[in-house]
Amino acid sequence: MTTLLYTHPRCLEHDAGFGHPECPARLTAILNALKTASFVTLEWREAPEASLEQLTRIHSLKHVERIFARVPRHGHYAIDGDTIISPQSGEAALRAAGAVCAAVDAVLKGEANNAFCAIRPPGHHAEPHQAMGFCLFNNAAIGAAHARVVHGLERVAVIDFDVHHGNGTQAAFETQQGYLYISTHQAYIYPGTGRREERGIGNIVNVPLSASAGSTELRQAWIQDVEPALHAFQPQLILISAGFDAHYLDPLAGLNFCEEDYEWLTGNILAVAKQYCQGRVVSMLEGGYNLQALAASVAAHVKVLIDAPLAA
Amino acid sequence: MYEFLQYLVCDAMTPEPIAMSPKAKLREAEALFEVHDFNGVPVVDDQRHLLGILTKFDLLKAFIFDFHTLVPHYDEIMEQTIETVMTSHPVSVEPQLPLSRLLQKLVEMRAKSLPVVKEGRLVGMIAREDVLKALRRAAIQHETPAREEQ
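^ inputs. structure came back:
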């Protein structure tokens, strides 16, 4: 058994404009880190394009059509002040969502224990009818729906440790049975959702952290909120919206996680996955904007995925 | 603003700032505040290890009513050493901290300036004015992509 790495060159060509923090260099830094000797056992796979059927399990057809209608032939188009697309963004977004669906297929077919999708644009802010916050399609939600519909799973959990709340994933699942969405994030920053009281149909667990919270608060959140919710739900597959912008060097927020925290968190997620779903985990990149911190944090995260003990 | 996100504290700080000895008199600090528009002056030892910071508030603090005297005497108090009223163990930041994070910290703490420390040694001071200047510089350098119609 192995760990799969899904990515695609097109994901490097989505360009949000000069100086934009969600830049191709993020992915380059990650891929360079994952090409080093410690990751030699990673099996690299090319991400396919998501199908319209896969996208429309979460997004309205109108949303999908609107995105593609706005992809410019040259230059940029600003969907909002920060969500900016370029000629290759449409295909990059299809590859990003497609990567997660293919990783779900591979892991559920038993081709691998787990997978990491090194993709951009990110997805967790994209709502069923609205692109926002650098996100076009909700990769995590699309992957989770794929697991439910195609593979017949009854319980799929998404754990989101990006520093921002995944409003899009919450919006996709808050009225849907069979999904659990858990998010740790910094309170009172973008997008403004993610209060504890937002509980969906009992399947949404939001753990807002105060500005400057770090390792201690993360561990408390895991023990008090995240782990109990996972045990109660008993997931058959765990997806991770892996944003690394809660790192102490990240310029977009104020939390103070470090590489060891991501390592610790990943290990704990894998332990739960081992208990309930034969270790089946599909992780995907969301945010993280300090290139060095991002590369080091992803490396720490993926190393734990690779070293995961085989399912009990 | 995107440009601003790439700035670090070391890009905007005043490097190698004026600092004072803990044995210097409050009178000397007051004279310094007269000449320069400092919010506070860092206090260091001979190797420029940061020991404290003396702010204008700390100076005022020397004059509050206490049990020693009925009325504080100006000349007498100005002869006290800085170490008697300085803020010891001040909050400091590293030169590699993103400037966006420093901004949040200044606002949260309602601080006017913070010392910048590398391996225990003072390497700079960063003030509200420095951050405002960096914001202005970033705004000039970065043009937000315009909405382009098909």
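Residues 128-141 of chain B form the longest helix (14 residues). Helices of chain B lie at 2-6, 9-12, 26-35, 56-61, 74-78, 99-109, 128-141.
thumbs up if we can close this ticket
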